[in-house]
Write a structure and sequence with these properties.
Helices cover 42% and strands 16% of the residues. By secondary structure, the protein is α/β, with parallel strands linked by helices.
């Protein structure tokens, strides 16, 4: 089997793609997998680290604000389409799988033009531009949320959930390791703050300004990922407190999740899938800087089901710490969030998607 996987730009696209690739390898260790991403984006580093080959395209996304860069998008799209054509002619994939993001658009569209069966993964509660464009000729569309027939043909949809990393699927027996890893001490409750690999400015500002809160509540322990773009926060007063562990990037999210009593984070689709799998109560702060405002829709979906709390990005500095102060002492509410978010968990999503791709390949070869 030869499988082409395309997409990227953020961890929310890359890590599910790697999870599916790993599941395909478990299914058939001899299958060949090739990734296609965007030059200069994080997939060009993360995919090879995971053990897979990747080809970069000169594609770029459309800027939502007026920008001269948008004038280059059509030229880069054409250049990317020609490059993909050469890659497909050489690799000869049995199926092409798109995980979203602008990098997936030229790869999957060219595969469709060349009559290669294609499948898509839509991680969010509201589809992005690439998947909307590609859906008409896709054979299968894997989704994480119900009622996605509002956007896609119902007969193509398979509800699988979002694929998540293997190390996060089971946190049993990891607490003691986590305590050693983070030098946890004797704190009673643990807060986990993170905003993705690049960081979330408003969440970081709220934590930075909360030194007084953490001094007052020295029975709390905080793990704080600032992200690559906000490493300067590591020099703040809060970051240096004895009950705070601040770092640019958390290499062992499985350990962080294992001791977290409350998670404060963005509302990306992958993050929500991880929270569901590990059954952690959360305060979600949707990013306002994403296409179609899909993070707010993701968070609202959970709030409606009493599976999480939400604070808007604009209100973080005023309301986030008071919300945490109230929640961390409300055991019943934390238990309700944990119980209800568990209902959204689909820990076998990667294996299910891999199985469907294999079935699709076999059906095409009959």
């Amino acid at each position: 089997m030869r499988i082409l996987i395309s997409g990227g730009g953020t961890g929310g696209h890359i890590f599910p793609a790697i999870a599916v690739a790993d599941a395909l390898k478990d299914w058939d260790e001899n299958c060949e997998i090739l990734f296609i991403g965007a030059e200069g984006r994080m997939e060009m580093e993360k995919i090879p680290k995971a053990g897979y080959s990747i080809v970069g395209l000169p594609i770029s996304g459309i800027q939502r604000k007026l920008s001269l860069r948008n004038a280059m998008v059509p030229l880069r799209l054409i250049e990317s389409l020609w490059k993909v054509r050469k890659v497909i002619n050489k690799f000869k994939p049995d199926v092409a799988f798109g995980v979203g993001g602008y990098a997936s658009a030229p790869a999957i569209k060219m595969a469709q033009w060349m009559n290669i069966p294609t499948a898509l993964l839509e991680c969010n509660n509201f589809p992005g531009m690439a998947n909307k464009w590609l859906a008409k000729k896709a054979v299968r569309i894997f989704v994480a949320y119900r009622e996605m027939d509002r956007f896609f043909p119902k007969e193509k949809l398979i509800i699988t959930g979002n694929p998540i990393r293997k190390d996060i699927r089971s946190l049993s027996n990891k607490k003691e390791e986590a305590k050693r890893f983070f030098d946890w001490g004797q704190s009673k409750k643990t807060l986990l703050f993170f905003g993705g690999s690049l960081g979330a400015r408003t969440i970081n500002q709220a934590v930075r300004d909360a030194a007084g809160f953490f001094k007052e509540r020295n029975d709390l322990f905080a793990i704080w990922q600032t992200g690559k773009n906000h490493a300067s926060y590591l020099e703040s007063e809060t970051a240096k407190l004895p009950n705070v562990r601040a770092m640019q990037f958390i290499d062992r999210m499985d350990l962080a999740y294992s001791i977290a009593d409350l998670v404060i984070c963005r509302a990306g689709a992958l993050t929500i899938s991880e929270l569901s799998a590990v059954e952690k109560p959360a305060v979600l702060v949707p990013s306002p800087n994403v296409a179609e405002d899909h993070q707010t829709k993701n968070a609202a979906y959970l709030v409606e089901r009493e599976a999480a709390a939400m604070v808007s990005d604009a209100e973080v500095r005023e309301f986030l710490i008071p919300k945490i102060r109230d929640l961390i002492k409300d055991e019943k509410q934390l238990e309700k969030f944990s119980k209800n978010i568990k209902r959204e968990a689909r820990p076998d999503a990667a294996e299910q998607i891999a199985g469907e791709l294999v079935k699709l390949i076999k059906s095409e070869k009959i």
